[in-house]
């Protein structure tokens, strides 16, 4: 097993959420919520464009977690909260920060930011792959 990360270690994964990715996520999940797939409906609802799928955006946190913990670990628990909708085309940063780590678990705080605003917060617990 690779070396454990220490409390305070963090990794940030940055990505722009595109229209193409909206289409992929729709195809994978079957989610046809109008604010996510219909630009006219989204703007009538007061958004500037279609809303990024919340779970697609929070899924970027799994990349940060995997890079932080390494290949011998998997997600054992994952909890997130969403502050607000944000539009397709947004460039976001998904950060996982270790709060504690031992051979049985790596605990992390999670945050997704858009510019200087935190739009998703949460926690995760990584466990050994075989657990």
From TrEMBL:
The organism's place on the tree of life at top rank: Bacteria
InterPro entries to which the protein is assigned, alphabetical: HotDog_dom_sf
Protein name as it appears in the record: Acyl dehydratase
């Amino acid at each position: 097993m690779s070396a454990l990360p220490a409390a305070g270690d963090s990794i940030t994964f940055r990505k722009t959420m595109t229209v193409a990715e909206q289409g992929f996520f729709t195809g994978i999940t079957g989610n046809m919520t109008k604010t996510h797939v219909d630009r006219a409906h989204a703007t009538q609802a007061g958004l500037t464009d279609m809303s990024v799928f919340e779970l697609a955006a929070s899924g970027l946190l799994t990349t940060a977690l995997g890079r932080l913990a390494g290949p011998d670990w998997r997600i054992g628990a994952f909890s997130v909260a969403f502050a607000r909708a944000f539009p397709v085309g947004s460039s976001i940063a998904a950060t996982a920060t270790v709060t504690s780590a031992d051979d049985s678990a790596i605990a992390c705080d999670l945050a997704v930011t858009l510019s200087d605003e935190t739009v998703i917060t949460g926690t995760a617990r990584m466990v050994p792959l075989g657990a």
